[in-house]
C-alpha cells in the first residue's frame, strides 16, 4: 500500500510578510531562503523543516481563529519539559504571548501565538507517548492493541470508535 513519507512543509497565510518573517526568524530561528514576492520560504537549520508564509491577493485579513474550519494549530517538537521551560523564558524575553506549560496525557504542551494570532505549540513527549510510539513502531496497530495499551498504562482516555 502506498503511504506518505513524512511532512514536507506547512504554508501559513499571513497579513504582513515582513512582520511574520521577523517573528519566525527571531523567535524560532528559521532562516529565510527564498522570497517569491507573494510568499517567503523559511527553513529551520537544525531540522530542515520548511515553512512558507503566504500573502494572497483578496485575502479577508484579520486575526486567525481556530474556530474556523481548517488549521487548529501547528505543533512542533521539543526534546523535553525542561526545554519547554527554556522556551517560556525566551518567550518572556521576546514578549511572545503564551499559555504556561500544560502536563497532558501524552506529553507536555506550550501554546503560543504568532503576529497573526496563528496558534502554535511546542510539545515534548512524556513516558506514555514514548511507549505508544514504540508500540506502533513494533506493529501494535490494531484497535485491540491500542485499547490494551490505554488500559495497561492506566490512561483515562476515550477510545476511538467508542461512545
UniProtKB/TrEMBL annotation:
<dbReference type="InterPro" id="IPR029068">
    <property type="entry name" value="Glyas_Bleomycin-R_OHBP_Dase"/>
</dbReference>
<dbReference type="InterPro" id="IPR037523">
    <property type="entry name" value="VOC_core"/>
</dbReference>
<feature type="domain" description="VOC">
    <location>
        <begin position="6"/>
        <end position="125"/>
    </location>
</feature>
<protein>
    <submittedName>
        <fullName>VOC family protein</fullName>
    </submittedName>
</protein>
<keyword id="KW-0479">Metal-binding</keyword>
<dbReference type="InterPro" id="IPR004360">
    <property type="entry name" value="Glyas_Fos-R_dOase_dom"/>
</dbReference>
<dbReference type="Pfam" id="PF00903">
    <property type="entry name" value="Glyoxalase"/>
</dbReference>
<dbReference type="InterPro" id="IPR051332">
    <property type="entry name" value="Fosfomycin_Res_Enzymes"/>
</dbReference>
